[in-house]
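Hi,

Apologies if this is the wrong queue. I'm a grad student, and the batch job for MerR family transcriptional regulator from Streptomyces eurythermus produced an output file that my downstream script rejects. I'm not sure whether the problem is my script or the file. Here is the sequence I used:
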Amino acid sequence: MRIGELARATGVSVRLLRYYEEQGLLVAGRTPGGQRVYDDSAPRTVRRIRALLDAGLPTRVIREVLDCVCGGEAEVEPCLTPVLVEQLQGIEERIARLEGSRASLTRLLTTTS
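Support response: The file is valid. Your script probably expects a header line. Output copied below for reference.
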């Protein structure tokens, strides 16, 4: 399937598909004319990439763990658990910092009124 067909099948822009390929997340063959050609598993791979991005994983982590995704778009092998736990802890730390910033801003606003 060509890149436009993959974009239509997945709802992901051609630009993003090229980016996924650039990041090593998606593999495309080439026609003699240089056009990208994807195999039949590409739509499933793109949906998996989207599910992992939606979970907050950066592309560098997705590249490392994409092979551990199985079944549906978001089912993962147990080998992924440590990576996902680490990512979740990072998100929780960022949330805690943001909540601290919000509390500080709230205090500043209440003292300036």
